[in-house]
Design a protein that fits this description.
318 residues; alpha+beta; globular; two-stranded antiparallel ribbon; Alpha-Beta Plaits
């Protein structure tokens, strides 16, 4: 596919910060303080605050705060917000990053139309190299459509949102055609885009070097490009090469029903290494990508470059 017909931009969709106050307080007082710090009206609902292990009356010393849009995309703004909040509600410990969602958006250039964006969405959905309960979410029914080995059941529909991973997983992904904004408001045609996003929390954050809020200072988001990778299935003859006839037959049957989709391909995700002393296979381990796929270097380079540009924008106001 010719990716030069699209312009890519990466953003922090949202970030969860956990604060610990010296004195127990309640969720609504943290929300009120944040509205004043962000110059929002008292009726604003943009501020999401959740107490951690609340006690009687909902009081707690620990709260998770989710920030979107401009505040989530500027380190200086995050630092300002947390500094101002600490003056109102003194902190007992440094602010911690608890989760972050990063999106890479592809917009149409020039004469590229909606049909091209739909095609790109399907390309992203069928080529993302990720593992963990892949399914499509149908917004019209609010139900999941699971990818199975039944004929036709693994056909990717770009009108639906592809989800990989579960809510509590350290890393999860979503790929979809973004036509609407918050509250279901339709986007102008020039703002519609194919979006691929990933969410990090738990161990994935620590492994990526994101712990305290201060760890974001000078952070290079291109370090995270390994979490958003795309590829193509190898040719069938290369996949079945050296397989025994029975395994090769099963793989060929599977190939016929998967339409070349890396996302729906269930094989090659386990590595079986040989114990050299005993000459027997050791316990299988999970691969980061299926051995039956090869990287889409052009698309992966574009993702990395876009994340690098996000790094520059994130600190532009410092």
């Amino acid at each position: 596919m010719d990716y030069s017909a699209f312009k890519a931009r990466a953003v922090v969709d949202w970030i969860d910060i956990e604060i610990t106050t010296e004195v127990p307080t309640q969720q609504q007082w943290i929300q009120d303080d944040l509205r004043r710090i962000l110059n929002l009206p008292d009726s604003a609902k943009e501020i999401w605050v959740e107490p951690v292990n609340p006690g009687p009356g909902g009081a707690s010393c620990a709260f998770r705060i989710r920030l979107h849009d401009a505040p989530a995309n500027s380190y200086s703004e995050l630092e300002r917000i947390m500094g101002a909040l600490a003056k109102r509600k003194p902190f007992a410990a440094p602010s911690q990053v608890r989760a972050i969602e990063i999106a890479v958006d592809f917009y149409a250039k020039g004469q590229a139309n909606e049909l091209n964006l739909i095609r790109l969405t399907k390309r992203l959905q069928t080529s993302i190299i990720a593992r963990g309960n892949p399914r499509q979410f149908d917004p019209s029914t609010r139900l999941n459509v699971y990818l199975t080995d039944r004929p036709g059941a693994n056909e990717i529909n770009p009108a639906l949102s592809l989800r990989i991973g579960n809510k509590g997983d350290d890393i999860s992904w979503q790929v979809y055609f973004k036509r609407t904004d918050k509250g279901g408001v339709p986007l102008p045609s020039g703002d519609q885009r194919a979006r691929a996003e990933f969410t990090l929390q738990g161990a994935a954050l620590a492994e990526s070097g994101l712990t305290e809020l201060a760890s974001l200072k000078g952070y290079r988001f291109e370090q995270l490009s390994g979490h958003l990778r795309f590829g193509n299935l190898k040719r069938l003859d290369r996949i079945v090469e050296d397989m025994n006839p029975f395994a090769a037959y099963a793989v060929r049957r599977l190939w016929e029903s998967h339409n070349g989709s890396v996302t729906a391909w269930p094989l090659g995700w386990r590595a079986y290494r040989l114990d050299r002393q005993k000459g027997l296979p050791r316990k299988a381990v999970d691969r980061k990508q299926t051995s039956h796929a090869e990287a889409d270097y052009d698309l992966n380079r574009r993702v990395r470059r876009t994340l690098s540009e996000l790094s520059g924008k994130f600190f532009a106001q410092n």
